[in-house]
Amino acid sequence: MTTTDLSHPSIELTKSLIARPSVTPDDHGCQQIMSKRLQSLGFHCEQLDRGGVENLWATWGDSGPMLVFAGHTDVVPTGPIEHWDSDPFDPVVRGDCLFGRGAADMKSSLAAMIVATERLFTESPPSGGRIGFLITSDEEGPADHGTQYVVEELQQRGVDIAWCIVGEPSSNEILGDTIKNGRRGSINARLVIKGKQGHVAYPHLADNPMHRAFAALDALTKVAWDQGNDHFDATSLQFSNIQSGTGASNVIPGELVADFNLRFSTEITAEQIKERCERLLSEHDIDFDISWRLSGNPFLTKPSALVSACQESILEHTGVTTQLSTGGGTSDGRFIATMGCQIIELGVVNRSIHQRNEHVLVSDIPRLTAIYQGVLQRLFCD
Question: How far apart are CA 175 and CA 275, in angstroms?
């Protein structure tokens, strides 16, 4: 049973946010809770909403370098509630953990950000600099009208950001053991290989796209795109869906549709990937169309003031020596990185995210709050 003080303000705020069923893209009042607390500290808060998505942009300070806390209030669907041990939107502490949808991804981080800022202003108010919050309700969904839109708006305004902390659950085993200082790029493709439908007993009157596709698809899986580098693993391609056929056993299909994704390093560009894929496919005896969707380019923050502040604060409050990583999927950091700022992802353990019975170690919430406050102090008060 946990001995952590459950009345700690960041735990209470985490519970309040979990209790809001903010299934993407519904914010369900989470940003109103955050905005009210930030306004009481003197933040200017505005809603940059678009397309049914709520986006909070809150700022404090008039000059000096800006640190932005970034995150999302939306959560993934719960799946069948009866498969959970308790209501996913009724936050409950069992043993040492707080359970509920969004507990780890990422309402505990949002609560820690707010409370850390409140405590900074109470205990050691910064004499300069600027602090911002960029919070969206469209990270778990298409992400078209969330952080990407807000970043475009801020760039049009000429807003300059020096540092950004994204509250994604970055830790692997214990709080602070890993922070993300970059992410691989992600590009998706839909490949349509065309044939001619016909009867399996008369193959000479048809053209089977599956037979033509096998060699081409196999060739794509065997490409050595690059070797990676000191910061990124080698680029990799994975097929996610292959569909063909009518469902009948006596019909040769008329086309094959294959979806695949590449997670790519800074050693190759999206345009180079497209060109190389299309050139390889053209070398095979197939009639094809291919469409592309770029989810985000790779980004990297090398050792810097922000990285040092995070590592030092984690060591102070947990005793953990932090490792830097660029692994995992994508995050909204890919949009913010286009502003040219130093950016890292720092949050709780990611072991239960998107799963039933999602949870976070209760004691990690106050510790993460202290870590965030320590980062603010190092950047603005030292």
Answer: 42
